[in-house]
Amino acid sequence: MAEGEVKQSTAENTAYDRNDLPELLPIYYKRLFPYGPYYKWLSYGGVEKSYFQNREFSFTLKDDIYIRYQSFSDQSEMEKEIQRVMPYKIDIGAVFSHKPKDHKTVKPGAFQAQEKELVFDIDMTDYDDVRNCCSGANICENCWPLMVIAIKIVDRALRDDFGFEHRLWVYSGRRGVHCWVCDESTRKLDQTARTAIAEYLSVVKGGESQIKKVTMRDPMHPSLKAAFEIMSKHMKHYLFEQQDILGTEDRLKKVLRLFPEQGLREILKEDADKGGDSKDIWERWLKTVKSEKERDNMKKSPFPLHEVVFQYCYPRLDVNVSKGVNHLLKSPFCIHPKTGRVCVPIDVEDVDNFDPFAVPTISTLCKEIDEYKEQPGKENEAQPGTKRKIQDYQKTSLKKSVETFNKFVKGLSGTWKGKMIENSDQKGDF
Amino acid sequence: MQFSGKRTKKSRRTVTLTGGRNESRYQHNLQFYTVPPNETVSLEEFETFAIDRLKVLKAVESAGIKYMKTSEQYTQKLEQEIKKLMPIAVRRTDVEGSMQDKDYDDRRKDHISHFILRLAYCKSEELRRWFLIQEMDLFRFRFGNENTDTIGHFLRQNDLDYRPIPEEEKRALRDDLKSSSYEMKGDKFETTDFYKVPFQEALDLVRARKVYLKKGYVYVPGSELVSIILSSFRGNLSKALAVTARALPTLQEDERLLKRLANLHTQYLGQDYSNRKATAGKVAPEDIEPLSKKSFPLCMRNLHETLRQEHHLRHGGRMQYGLFLKGIGLQLEDALRFWRSEFTKMMDGDKFDKSYSYNIRHNYGKEGKRTDYTPYSCMKVIMTNAPAAGDHHGCPFRHTDPELLKQRLQGYRVNSAGVQEIVDLVKGGHYQLACTKYFEITHNVDDAGFGLNHPNQYFEESQKVLNGGHAPKTTPHTPSIQRPKPIKKEMTAEFDDDFPMDEVEHLLTASQDTAVTEVAPE
Questions:
Q1: What percent of chain B has pLDDT over 90?
Q2: Would residue A123 show up in a list of annotated catalytic residues for this protein?
Q3: pLDDT at position B366
Q4: CA–CA dist B2, B40 (Å, integer)
Q5: Residue B122 known to bind ligand
Q6: Residue B137: what pLDDT?
Q7: B213 near A162, Cβ under 8 Å?
Q8: In this structure, are B343 and B329 located in the same domain?
């Protein structure tokens, strides 16, 4: 398997070894997993009692054994189950009409997925044709900006265009990011609506037979204009320096293929042949396209250079993940079994500074707890009942992530507080 | 079961019902079909109504394949085709004066025939999807006949209360509104009304990024109002079809209906390619390679070649190609052998067995919910699940760069005139016709003589040509709708000849306890 890639991406941290998982997971699930806010999130304040109880979880065990339709009646049952089973991976599914663990006892067909957060999955492997540094599951600091751009663009659209307030972004632990949109009305959306939203957000289209994957018409939609503005802030550093998209003969050729009109392609090629680095060439191109436009030569494709930027930078969603109400997605705060990294929430406000390589691995965390205590007295651990003044996660580099998560849950709790008051108003008890 | 008191024997056979008219139900030429008919319909009427509507829907489909739905020709063609069968569909609602008899009868026929076809077309997802698409197109076409007045009338009747946004709001959003639609050039903007609705009500417009979206609301220009109404139409119908399908088993008891219904839907799709009895075992893994060169449509040939080169296909490709192979007669064991032999060039057998064989067995109905999946039709391949990065599935005519398509066609030795013809068809959005052209060129026939709507149909037609069963044709055979053979009147006295529609109503609102998925959006 891909041993090399694991090593590469965990270079300077405490080396993570997959074989240690059986020893590390108990510590993690016992002392670090943030059950409190996690339960608070998924029970949505308990406005609807069965909401948490009817939620599907699924566990992946050692050797890829996959068990679906797990469900728990409350936080303590969830904690106990997770600590008993020690899943390598936890996925969160839909809220069903019945308790998922009873699904076999319900009449077939009656058991149906009813609600779920609207989720998005953005995965670096989908960008292979526009990454010059890595491919497949590998990532490096030269391609990570793609994820930063993706988060900014999708987050803006969800907030400003759709008016969704509660969005949780999570690092998937290896090569991508997830987003959970948790507004009440959003959780109730059906498949058609989810599909429409995902497609509204998809601009890069086409498979391996389609070289040019973006075609834009005039006028440009306000949402795409806003996206372009975000991308243009990253162009200089990401496109021209990190990816250096016009820097070599091959790369230039690849970009030139995105201009279907031969006339324009030839002019731009001449421009490029005048030399300089990616940025120089691009600036020449901007002028050329502008003057071509003035001469009214651009009727057919009014935004040739924009299209290049979109193809190289615009988020590529895995639409199928977003479509279904019943699609499972890896839970925040589980451990990516291949890298050992925690799937930590990402603070969108500070997404530029998010460094996937600095995300703690389970090995680092366990070591941090040990080192914090300094005396490896086993006795203390044996009594989980004794109140610790400092919670374990605060002793580790997980602290910031849990705080980000708490901030999100706090924002969310505003919605159900209002709801509770509304409910009690209706009942008339004050 | 309910028997209405009015069930007298005499006047039932006449199509024009004068007694018991329920005019309030049919106030407008357009209907949302929310309430099922609950009157008594004779079996003959049942049959004529159904067949006529089926012909109409078939005409809607073929006009949609031939022409762009927004074009003049489409409207003309459709009008000409359905004028006789469904006069109501080509005339504008007369909202003045009292209702004419012909209006009443036509509207009633529209109503009842729609509900009969619901019964026939609710059985599988494929059928539901087909019916839904055609009914929506028909509704859209009919909506186009109406004017602002009659539309307003219709909206009020159906409690769809849409009001334009005030002038100040419009002015404040001017730039964003103008750049959200391709039609707002010049003064068009000034004269257009915009309607502000929650985005959930205009999903088609959202999906295509055809409207301005702000904080969960869309601003829909008057010209796109039809889209909102259609989406509501679609929502209703899709749910209703799912409910009907759940209720259908109860109906199975009435043999008279059953036979007719069963006949009905097979008449349109021509063939159900999931039924492999006829072809099962006809194709062995070794045959696939040569067949792929001679008889596979381009989409399948493409997938096959990719599989051979990369020894892998992503999920979309495995589904599309796997089900096609099933359809041409590759049996499960052979399919497993075939896929295994390719995939294991890239991975070990263990991994294949663990991760992929389930998927193949699933397609053959041996895993999971044990549905025997139907091979994808052209419509499905073209409209749904477009390929993304890394994918090779989809329709090559729809999902390939024109330049690349040209190269590929040349690679398959299509002459340059042929390539040009195909590319022109593609540019016009006629992907199935482009594929038919490809068939004609590669099989050296002048006129393929069939309306292509399924990759497996392509394969079968190709085999016919190659095996001489079907000499190059001069008379095109179009799948026509034939009246089902009248069912022999062998019922005994205890069976009445008529079928009470209120029983159907009962069925339509019956229990919801069996799972039937609603039609997924295309």
A1: 25
A2: yes
A3: 81
A4: 11
A5: no
A6: 93
A7: yes
A8: yes
Q: Report the candidate in B396, B399, B498 with the shortest Cα–Cα distance to residue B455.
A: B396
**Using one digit for the tens of pLDDT, what is the confidence trace for B291-324?**
998 899 999 999 999 999 989 999 899 999 999 9
- Whether residues B307 and B411 share a domain: the answer is yes
Whether B452 maps to a domain, the answer reads yes
**pLDDT of amino acid A427:** 59
B376 with B459, same domain? Answer: yes
Rounded percentage of chain B residues whose pLDDT exceeds 70: 79
Q: Name the nearest CA neighbour of B25 among B15, B40, B35.
A: B35
**Cβ distance of B389 and A127 shorter than 8 Å:** yes
Which of A5, A121, A307, A392 is catalytic? The answer is: A121
pTM of the model: 0.73
Residues of chain A with pLDDT under 70: 1-14, 373-389, 424-430
CATH of the domain at B130: 1.20.930.80
Q: How far is B251 from chain A (nearest CA, A)?
A: 19
Whether residue B141 is found in the same domain as residue B241: yes
Considering its fold, how many domains does chain B have in total? 3
Burial pattern B398-432, b for ≥16 Cβ within 10 A else e, equals bbbbeebbbebbeeeebeeebbebbbebbeeebbb
- Is A211 close to B401, i.e. CB distance below 8 A? yes
B299 is in an annotated binding site: yes
Residues of A in contact with B392 (CB under 8 A): 207-209
DSSP code string of A173-220: SSSEEEEEE--HHHHT--HHHHHHHHHHT------TT-S------SSP
Give B-chain residues touching A200 at CB under 8 angstroms. 206-207, 209, 213
Whether the complex's predicted ipTM surpasses the cut of 0.85: yes
Same domain, B319 and B174: no
Residue B345's pLDDT is what?
A: 87
Asked if A299 and A263 touch (Cβ cutoff 8 Å), the reply is: no
Q: What is the pLDDT of residue A296?
A: 78
Q: State how far residue B389 is from chain A, nearest Cα, in angstroms.
A: 5
Full domain range(s) for residue B214 = 162-225
pLDDT at B7 (0 to 100): 41
Q: Tell me if residue A56 is catalytic.
A: yes
Assess contact for A319 and A202: CB atoms under 8 A. yes
| CB spacing of B388 vs A193 below 8 angstroms | no
Distance CA A145, CA A151 (A): 10
Looking at B225, B250, B273, the residue that finishes a domain is: B225
| pLDDT over 50 at B182, yes or no | yes
Nearest CA in chain A to B407: A209
d(C-alpha B331, C-alpha B276), whole Å: 9
Q: Which residues of A touch B310 (CB under 8 A)?
A: none
Whether residue B502 lies inside any domain: the answer is no
CB–CB contact B392 A225 (8 Å): no
Confirm whether B503 is domain-assigned. Answer: no
Please report which residue ranges of B399-491 form alpha helices under DSSP H: 402-411, 416-427, 431-443, 455-466
Chain A interface, mutation test: which of B129, B185, B199, B407, most A Cβ atoms within 10 Å?
A: B199
Count the helices and strands in chain B (H runs, E runs). Answer: 23, 5
A225–B179 CB contact, under 8 Å: yes
Q: What pLDDT was estimated at residue A125?
A: 93
For residues B392 and B335, state if they share a domain.
yes
Catalytic residue among A79, A91, A117, A123: A123
First to last CA, chain B: 37
Q: Fold for domain A18-200+317-370+394-427? A: DNA primase, PRIM domain (3.90.920)
Give B400-456 pLDDT, tens digit per residue. 888 889 888 988 888 888 999 899 888 877 888 899 999 999 998 888 777 788 999
Q: Per the CB < 8 Å rule, is B388 touching A107? A: no
B355 and B441 co-located in one domain:
yes
Residue B380 belongs to a domain:
yes
- Give the gap in angstroms from C-alpha A392 to the nearest C-alpha of chain B: 38
Q: Indicate the domain borders of chain A.
A: 18-200+317-370+394-427, 211-313
